[in-house]
Amino acid sequence: MLIREFKRPDLKRVLEIESSSFDDPYPANVLVDLYNLGAGFLVAQQDNIIVGYIIFWIRFEDEGHIISIAVDPHHHRKKIGSRLVETTLEIFKKYNVDKIQLEVRKGNRKARKFYQRLGFEEKTLVINYYEDGEDAMIMEKILENLENSYNPE
Ligand SMILES: CC(C)(COP(=O)(O)OP(=O)(O)OC[C@H]1O[C@@H](n2cnc3c(N)ncnc32)[C@H](O)[C@@H]1OP(=O)(O)O)[C@@H](O)C(=O)NCCC(=O)NCCS
């Protein structure tokens, strides 16, 4: 499996995965806007087919934020999502990001388990976060960045 940067021709497959993964999928223009604004956008490709994607960016200079991730439901539990997050963490490290946050629907138990498995901790419940009134769980991971933690004394 290959993890690579998103290219415009990937959009159709990404939208298919998006709509098979979420009840409230991002519309095409939101994904394109994020891409044009410089958000990180990676895809997972297997046998020449896009099977997953992740979008992320850096806010407040040193805080990474995972905006969205989804894997084609036919390819769940093959560590594709883990590979996408791990590659994103490597990119964040290069930019000296030391804290990563994301929001996940309280009722999305699968995703909460997935992120916990990757070392994210559940921090704060934000009531009524989503348009349909569902609460969001803020999850956070602190990255061990050797450069930042070096202390000569
Ligand atoms: C969440 C998602 C991206 C995980 O992708 P994935 O490629 O299937 O995940 P992985 O194979 O890397 O899973 C790694 C670990 O996470 C946990 N996990 C993943 N899916 C799980 C599930 N359905 N139930 C319980 N634990 C799960 C498991 O511990 C798993 O390891 P294991 O298979 O050895 O037990 C995928 O389920 C998805 O696209 N969901 C719909 C979109 C979504 O909810 N995105 C997140 C919104 S913030």
TrEMBL record:
Keyword list, A-Z: Acyltransferase, Transferase
Residues in N-acetyltransferase domain copies: 1-144
InterPro entries: AcTrfase_RimI/Ard1 (IPR006464), Acyl_CoA_acyltransferase (IPR016181), Ard1-like (IPR045047), GNAT_dom (IPR000182)
Domain of life from the UniProt record: Archaea
GO terms under cellular component: NatA complex
CDD domains xrefs: NAT_SF
This protein's record includes keyword Acyltransferase: yes
An annotated Gene Ontology molecular function: protein-N-terminal amino-acid acetyltransferase activity
Full protein name: Ribosomal-protein-alanine acetyltransferase
